[in-house]
Here is the input.
Amino acid sequence: MAEAWPDLAGRLVAGVHVLPVRVYFEDTDAGGVVYHARYLAFCERARSDMLRLMGIHQSRMGELGFVVRRMACEFLKPARLDDLLEVETRFRDWSGARLEMNQLVRRGAEVLFQADVTIAVIDLRGRPRRLPAKLAALFSGVTES
Amino acid sequence: MAEAWPDLAGRLVAGVHVLPVRVYFEDTDAGGVVYHARYLAFCERARSDMLRLMGIHQSRMGELGFVVRRMACEFLKPARLDDLLEVETRFRDWSGARLEMNQLVRRGAEVLFQADVTIAVIDLRGRPRRLPAKLAALFSGVTES
Amino acid sequence: MAEAWPDLAGRLVAGVHVLPVRVYFEDTDAGGVVYHARYLAFCERARSDMLRLMGIHQSRMGELGFVVRRMACEFLKPARLDDLLEVETRFRDWSGARLEMNQLVRRGAEVLFQADVTIAVIDLRGRPRRLPAKLAALFSGVTES
Amino acid sequence: MAEAWPDLAGRLVAGVHVLPVRVYFEDTDAGGVVYHARYLAFCERARSDMLRLMGIHQSRMGELGFVVRRMACEFLKPARLDDLLEVETRFRDWSGARLEMNQLVRRGAEVLFQADVTIAVIDLRGRPRRLPAKLAALFSGVTES
Here is the structure.
């Protein structure tokens, strides 16, 4: 079925992942714009889909998981109902148990939101874990040098 | 800490549970009103809190769980930002593995939303299960005759 | 930019609209499945995108709007993280100020959710309005006979 | 009706606002914990209720509005279903068109989330506006010296 919708997880080209996001009523608030916390959800969708295109499915990761530790967010301009947005995700760096990313949400060339994101690798009890070598190799392939 | 906020789970009087719900930006959409699916979340909060006041904590139910099977919803009038709503929950009936409830969302005397709700009791694999006698006795106590 | 993502609004073929929906963490709950109210949001996305493919953009409808009046929902089976779902939308009937639809959410051939939906046409004050002739003609074209 | 639920907007004592927040299914995800973006919504509820207790109702602010410009978030420990959380909000500083706050989410004494938040005052077109003298006086009263 996934083949029927080839772009559903966005595209990963030269280490940069781009995910299209349509703004629906659920994303907006009575101010007429996208509710601020929705940008974090858009970014989480993008990270999940970038992992998916790298062959990593979070529902099959067994005892390992990724969690957000830190997110420094700038809300630059408002998005509105029916807007077509694109989320760009870039790996900046990774160490034993942490991944550093930058994510931004654009409407065309106009950047509406951007965030520096720190992701931790944890086990089922929430304790930090080293990134397994296989995943580390995948992340190296998409990290900016 | 719960004692510090005595009304946080609403009140259960004569078999009717009432939960106050404030409308925040997150609940509204670009139409200036509460997004329709939010009423279902308000009703789920109310069911959880009614159970809580009956001594049933869903996070400690072990291998049993409650799921919504059917919900016939009427969206009568819009709620708006800053509104103070009240969710009323009444048990209508229960059988071996099903609970029937009616829920409505009011702003003062004005009914904005109402739903007939069927809840099923399931085990961890999602299979229907009979309501344990201890829970059945609790539900009998709050069911309209 | 919309041309870059040709399937973003799904597909409308022979009066049936199909929208793909990926299940992300935001859609799931601690029960490990999709939170029940999310199906209503998935259906709203599908209705918005079906209208979009018919040339109707809700953010440009001026003083008219669509609101959900009634929704009879059946939650048949749970969806889970990473699932690829498809929402099918069919117009059943329309009259002066009302549209009747059926919507279902599938995972492959397996139906997880289905709902009969009544939509009303309202003006900015929330009063019922007749469907303008131009829209009526569009809806006639996609209504099952 | 608000009098019937005296603590619904939390409490504002000596410049610190505390809002109780119960964790419901809607707030959790398939990881079994609170979805990260929900903390931002909890913080927005707290800011709205703190303003409410100061006599400022955002739905009646006419042509002025508050928007989040920046939010530096740390996700320290996970919250879970049924947890009773408390959101603490403190004003740090304010200038012509900006408010600086610190917000944290606790479970008892344990801090789960904390954020430094910058709020901007804008008009209906999204342009920065100076805080009116009346509001400025209110904010001075709750800002830490």
The mean pLDDT of chain B is 93.
